[in-house]
Known about the structure:
By secondary structure, the protein is α/β, with parallel strands linked by helices. The chain has helices spanning 20-33, 41-45, 52-59, 65-79, 92-101, 114-124, 143-153, 166-175, 188-194, 205-215, and strands spanning 5-10, 104-109, 132-134, 156-163, 179-182, 197-199.
Amino acid sequence: MKPASKLIVFDLDGTLNRTELFAVEVHRMLQTEFGWPAQSPEEITAVFGAPAEEYMDRLLPGSDKATQQRYLKREAEVEYDYMHLAAAYEGCQQMLSDLRENGWETAVCSNSSFRYISMILNATGLMHQIDYIQPLEKGMTEKSQSLHALLERVPHSMAVMVGDTAYDCQAAKACGIPFIGCLYGFRPTEMEAEAKHRVNTPGEIFPLAEELAAARQII
């Protein structure tokens, strides 16, 4: 077994991926297709980061579960046509490179499926910079469960979670690891309220992660 490394775990949407570049138009189109009014970009981005079972009630108010399942299936079909619009936040490539060159292993832990995570990482050009992928697996209902599963299977000397929502912060707390909140993501107000350690840009993540590791005497 290889020696344990420092592990940094990223949320995907609003942390690495500028989801609004493609997902807003996908949802507005599908809402119209399914007979619902197309919501504003602000209403749609407000649901980013939540598990599907939570955000579907907000995207299709009053819909039944069968309709929601058809919507999710259609969403998966349509997303591929919009991947040319996908992009990572500026500075993510360099930040991930700096981390990996300095002894960190990288992971993505998202409330999304493995299919979606892989599609986004490939479309944004970040796949080669990510060592592990942890989706929300069958039977899991919250990010703390998927983060716990990742930490159990990946040997590490210490771990840090990076994200932009309360889901990410709460998962880190539940698993007993430090959390870095991204103010550039979709829920800066949540991060101001809940995250002790915060960054304004992806470029600030590497030095802060190193600082947290040093505080735990892991260099």
